[in-house]
Write a structure and sequence with these properties.
Layout (H helix, E strand, L loop, with lengths): L2 H16 L21 E7 L6 H12 L3 H14 L1 E8 H16 L6 E6 L2
Antiparallel strand pairs: 1-2, 1-3
Helix pairs in contact: 2-3, 2-4
This protein binds L-tyrosinamide.
The site of L-tyrosinamide has 13 residues, from strand 1, helix 2 and helix 3.
Length: 120
């Protein structure tokens, strides 16, 4: 077909595509297949002067499934620097773990604190 005919054909095809009653028409626009990753949140551990080191390690192992070695490193970093990132999770998991870990300390009268903040 010549250029004018081709032009008419494309116009007709696109106008059909926009008419949803024509189910066999190809879509005029490609659908966006965009799958977004869930945003991640950091759980932060704060140092304090009262919570026993061994207890911090136990909470890190129990609530965050860290190995003894990882838990010791995280506890030691928080002890020396004031804070340490424990791990990252989707928002509700991060919040649940931070709350449970903070409550475990509070139940024994310790001021142990875990917080959640969005990853950049
Ligand atoms: N600083 C505490 C102590 O000397 C131990 C500790 C470490 C507490 C890390 C909290 O996030 C923490 N007993």
């Amino acid at each position: 077909m010549d250029a004018a005919a081709a032009d008419d054909y494309i116009k007709a095809r696109n106008s059909k595509a926009l008419d949803m009653s024509e189910t066999q028409s190809p879509p005029a626009l490609k659908p966006k297949l965009k799958v977004e990753r869930p945003k991640l949140y950091k759980v932060i551990l704060f140092n304090d002067d009262f919570t026993p080191r061994e207890f911090v390690v136990k909470v890190l192992q129990g609530e965050f499934r860290l190995s003894e070695d990882q838990a010791l490193r995280v506890m030691t970093t928080a002890h020396r620097k004031g804070v340490c990132v424990v791990s990252v999770y989707p928002r509700d998991i991060a919040e649940t773990k931070a709350t449970r870990a903070t409550d475990a300390g509070r139940a024994l009268g310790f001021p142990l604190r875990f917080d959640v903040e969005p990853e950049e």
